[in-house]
Specification:
By secondary structure, the protein is α/β, with parallel strands linked by helices. 20% of the residues lie in helices and 32% in strands. The longest helix has 10 residues. It is globular. It starts with a strand and ends with a strand. 32% of the residues are buried. The mean pLDDT is 93.
Length: 200
């Protein structure tokens, strides 16, 4: 039996590791230093950790860090939106103590080439509005992926974030079908699961 390979992009402190409990190898990407150090403390044999971000370009980008780390993103907050107002009430002070850092970013097609990956069973993406950019960074290697789980905001929380319609259109054009939708945060966000029509 071939080994199970996963990519956890925006791994946080390991909250989503349950998705990869049976996997042989999981590559985790987390640019926030605090979250990355917490991730290291898990000390799990099947995890390989990278303290940088994934994007559709390579080099360095400005990363917005927030007091509540889960909101940290390459994108700026859309403070005029309904979702921002909801977060400000439900999670008071979430964007206090904001600071910006320069982080390294890499494309997934470069990472796949460098690591000689030929099959990826699951990619989980949680990059706060930047998820479709991460998918696009796969380039032609999207064909070697079986399942992609990503997050989208149904109402804008970040400026220039992709809409659900944009995501579904791109995925369908690349032979992925939406198989499951899970709403969270009072229907302001959804986790979308896509399956490759030509699963290997």
């Amino acid at each position: 039996m071939s080994s199970l390979v996963g990519l956890n992009i925006g791994a946080g402190t390991g909250e989503s590791n349950c998705l990869f409990s049976d996997f042989d190898t999981v590559y985790c990407f987390e640019p926030n230093d605090f979250s990355f150090n917490k991730l290291k403390e898990l000390n799990l044999d099947n995890l390989t950790l990278y303290n940088y971000g994934i994007s559709d370009t390579e080099g360095y980008k400005t990363f917005n860090n927030y007091n509540h780390m889960g909101y940290s993103s390459l994108l700026d907050l859309d403070k005029s939106g309904e979702f921002y107002k909801h977060c400000s009430q439900a999670d008071v002070g979430f964007d206090r103590d904001t600071w910006k850092t320069k982080i390294k970013v890499k494309r997934l097609d470069s990472f796949i080439t460098e690591n000689d990956l030929t099959n990826i069973n699951l990619i989980k993406i949680d990059t706060q509005g930047h998820d479709l950019n991460v998918v696009k960074s796969l380039g032609s290697y999207i064909t070697i992926v079986n399942t992609i789980i990503l997050e989208c905001q149904t109402k804008s929380l970040y400026k220039n974030s992709s809409t659900k319609k944009d995501i579904i259109s791109y995925m369908n054009n690349n032979h992925f079908t939406l198989t499951h939708t899970e709403s969270n945060d009072e229907d302001f966000e959804e986790n979308l699961t896509f399956k490759n029509k030509y699963e290997r």
